[in-house]
Amino acid sequence: MNITKENVDALNAVVKVDIVAEDYQDKVTKVLNDYRKTANIPGFRKGQVPMGMVKKQYGKSVMIDEVNKLLQESLNKFLVEEKLDILGNPLPKVQDDFNWDADKFSFEFELGLAPEFDVNLKPKKKVTQYNIVATDELIEKELENIQTRYGKMSAKEEGTEVANITGTFVNEEKEINKKSTISVKDIKGKTNLKKFVGAKVGDVLELKTKNLFEEEHKLQQALGVSHDDAKELEIPVTLTIEEITEIEPAELDKELFDKLFADGSVNTVTELKEKIKEDAEKQFQQQADQQLLNAVTENLVENTKFDLPVEFLQKWLQTAGEKQLTTEEAAAEYEKSEKGLRYQLIEGKIMKDNDIKLDYAELVDYAKGFIRAQMAQFGNMNPEEKELDDIAGRILQNQDEAQKLQGQLISQKLLAFYKENMSFDTKEVSYEDFIKEVYK
């Protein structure tokens, strides 16, 4: 057997595999001998079937099977030994005159080669790194939410500007019939507000969905419709009021503080505000880190220039999935996935050049940390190590879950690397301004 590689250009190559009978004949003979021992053919005792008959019936199919096995093994071994960094999988070249009755066979495979490039971690245009701070307004709003959450509810005879209204929204045409509780504080506009203030249990309010709430997602929740439907919804609805309540805010005292923090770490309103600020900014940091990782990714893809074997990749995409794609469909699929492929190559290059690795022990520890956080949410603050090990082991046996956790851990490592090795324009913003700037 002989394997050779010919470079078409820097990104494409063809591998040729020549196979002769001596390469596969021993394996074919062994398989046929095994067939002969077990073949059940009328007129012959088991194991006594003439080899000529076995060859005639099974010879060609066995030969084809063994050649294909040898071909795949040899090709894979060649790619590893030659240390070829390929994209996708080798594509067999179609041979119209191929003949399985020939004395020797030649197979050709097209390869798409990964490009060589350098990654510039000091681009001229710096990425913005956001430092999100909890404003006094946000802290005061959270204080109000806490007081409301732990407050006392009482029934009211009629609606007020701070009442909660429970009732059923109906629109027969759109098949909406949803019981919901809404806050009058969320209602938008004086005209709508007048309908709620002074309304009583049993009243039927006629409303229009457009501009009914200050925030769009409140309409989605109230009517039980999808986000997209809520966005476009302009219909009349009726609301039959079934209950009117108000909440008397809880006092900001030691009793409330101990409910919130059983360890006694908060004893004053000032300490509660500090805790709210600390917790909020921890959550904001997670969002800021995710935004930074996204921004660095975009920046690296935009500023790291290299060519790809486009024609090969589009051809490979035609047969890579469960469904065969047309040329046009493969081109469209390539266009959608090109940016992701480019970042995969950049990410791999950064990890290789900077010895950023991920071993199984790290993945287990990361999984255990994730499990520990989940268990804490349900009150289990000190799970046993063996329990964590067992759960982590089960999770990591699931290939999809393992890949998901692996991706998260790699992202963490890369983010730490970027923070240490790249320069950023740091900007301090409120959460509201962060949302406006990043998701405008």
Which labels suit this protein?
440 residues, alpha+beta, Alpha-Beta Plaits, Chitinase A, domain 3, four-stranded antiparallel sheet, 51% helix
Q: How large, in whole angstroms, is the Cα Rg?
A: 34 Å
**What is the averaged pLDDT score?**
93
Number of helices: 14
The number of domains is 3
Overall structural class, as computed from helix and strand content, comes to alpha+beta
Subcellular location: Cytoplasm
EC number: 5.2.1.8
Enzyme class: isomerase
InterPro entries: Trig_fac, Trigger_fac_C, Trigger_fac_C_sf, Trigger_fac_ribosome-bd_bac, Trigger_fac_ribosome-bd_sf, Trigger_fact/SurA_dom_sf
Can you describe what's shown?
The protein is α+β, with helices and mostly antiparallel strands. The protein folds into three domains: 2-112, Trigger factor ribosome-binding domain (Alpha-Beta Plaits); 152-248, Chitinase A, domain 3, CATH 3.10.50; 262-306 and 356-439, no CATH class. It has 14 helices and eleven strands. Strands 6, 7, 8, 9 and 10 form a five-stranded antiparallel beta sheet that branches. Strands 1-2-4-3 form a four-stranded antiparallel beta sheet. The protein has a two-stranded parallel ribbon with strand order 5-11. A hairpin with a 4-residue loop joins strand 7 (164-171) and strand 8 (176-183). Helix 8 (269-303) packs across helix 13 (399-421), helix 9 crosses helix 10 (327-353) and helix 11 crosses helix 12 (385-397). The longest helix has 35 residues, at 269-303. It is elongated and about 100 Å long. The mean pLDDT is 93. It comes from Tenacibaculum aiptasiae.
